[in-house]
Specification:
It comes from Streptomyces tuirus. Pfam families: PhoX (PF05787). The structure is a single chain. By secondary structure, the protein is an alpha+beta fold. Strands 13, 14, 16, 17, 18, 19, 21, 22, 23, 24 and 25 form an eleven-stranded antiparallel beta sheet that branches. The longest helix is centred in the N-terminal third of the chain and has 13 residues, at 58-70.
Amino acid sequence: MRKLLPLIGTPSGSHPGGRSAMTCRFRCGDACFHEVPNTSSNEYVGDVIAGAVGRRSMLRAAAVVTVAAAGAGAAGVVQAPRAAAVPATGGPSTGAPSAAAASDAARRAHKGARGLRFAPVAPNTTDAVTVPEGYRQNVVIRWGEPILRGAPAFDPEKQTAKAQAGQFGYNCDFLALLPLPGERGRQLLVANHEYTDEILMFRGYDAANPTREQVEVAWAAHGLSAVVVEEDRGSGKLTAVTRHQLNRRVTATTAFRLTGPVAGSELVKTSADPTGTKVLGTLNNCSGGVTPWGTTLHGEENFNQYFANSGRATDKRYGIGTGASERKWERFDKRFDVAREPNEVHRFGYVVEFDPYDPASTPRKHTALGRFKHEAATVRLTHDGRPVVYSGDDERFDYFYKFVGSKRMKRGSSRAVREHNLSLLDEGTLYVAKLTGDSPALEIDGTGKLPKDGEFDGSGEWIPLATATAEGAVSHVDGMSAEEVFVFTRLAGDKVGATKMDRPEDIEPNPVTGKVYVALTNNTNRGVGSNAKANEANPRHANKHGHVLELTERWNRPESTRFAWSLFLVAGDPDDPATYFAGFPKDAVSQISCPDNVAFDPHGNLWISTDGAQLGSHDGLFGVATRGERRGELKQFLTVPKGAETCGPIIQDRRVLVSVQHPGEIDGASVETPASAWPDGPGTYVRPAVVAVWRADGRDIGV
């Protein structure tokens, strides 16, 4: 897998992490161009990831010789695989592979860790979803496709809010694929719709003067979709089952319940909801998780950008501006105007729980998990059946958290059992992480140079912030009430000295080993000016490529308050000495930049999707072995089209799913001047979509 391809082109735009200015505007409200919200003096867990280059064992070196000797592995990185070619129309290829391609793919299949035996996709800038040789793909569902009864076919020139409320939403992100008992060959797909990009949605869009119809379409395009999908028995192809009774849309105007310690607080009461328990809508749902009791969790991330006209210090800590919002929603609903409705903003920034098996259920916002920019919410159970939820706060120099529930999950499917389990995230203790390196501070200089002990590692503790019970809530932070801790969680983290991280995003426990992996996307402000310097957990200054941290709870018990940590992967060009791949030889790995969402396959391999890659190639999906002699062996599985981000990966035995988010979101693009023709070819609207990938021979992925 030696990386022979030179860097292609230049990263899109000049924004941090390689994002286009358009993406920064619409997804996070130009967060990276605003003052860093965290101005506390906490020690920063900086960019220490880069230097563990010298830890190559003889065994791993021998593995490289084996890979290089295969020859074909290197060829697979030099050019985009022929079998991944896309027709001129821009639609994905689903035909049978040529005999030569099938033979070549078979010849390479035995190389690599189990689950990762495929010829890696080369870095590229193709306007398509590019997959390995011997694999096929299809678009499962696109923005605007009808999923509810009575919803019309998508007509991009005549969009209405009523139509969009029955159609698949915009900018799909997190995905969950759940079993559907009694319906053979069908599963239930749940998708987040993070944000809207009105410039690519509406012809002639005037950002300074949006119309009410455009705003209401955008409200309807946010939220969640639940849609039944059916597999083709002769392939891995998935198609949406329209108008199924379980199909559902949740939007920015759907009724939610506010639950947990903040429900009914004076901090969340509004003129429209004097009870402080009923909220309209969910916004900017990024990643999420699936609970052991059969529901899905969804993290409200960059909610700040939808609100206008704030002047409070608490709002500034969350990045909420003093002027108008990008989308101007405050012109059409006063709840988005902080000056007129000061508490509405306190009702966003939570983890949402959704019951996809009950179309009549009311989704909940769990305040006991804290209020911040939740990237995700992933669950594991303690030995006695209590839930533990991990979540990152996706902001430069912010923190990552876990919640340890106090109530045990019940087994069964009765209504009483489901109601009990839906309350599990309302009682328990919220913690924030503090990390300490084990090397002298002088050995961490921000270059990624490895300390003398040969690795970036250390210990950590979970600091309790507040505990919620059925009788009430107790704060563990001096000077803050429990309600204040749960509403102003970032400030609570500041007070207790939590470790400042480089944009902690998705956090996933490995179902095979129990180790927890934290994706830290990047932080170009690390060590710049007066910003916090590098430390052993975040070891590089001006960290544009990000890293992945591996965390081991004490005794491997998720409720523990102590842990050990090490840097598993330091992203970037493998030729850069300030990169690290768990000690695996770097001339045998794919290049990776800006890790974002993470997931696991049935073999315990970590799969990483990227956002804003800074190496000249499009974003993609990568698999990496986490154990055994091939630990750290990383291979690129796919790339996404121009301007797109790879989101929501699901890795099953015989299928991989990804969300292709914001394709064509390149500076200067619009409906009139599109930057991408994906997925339906020239002359059509660019549409975010879900894609399924499978092996052409029907066998398991990567074996």
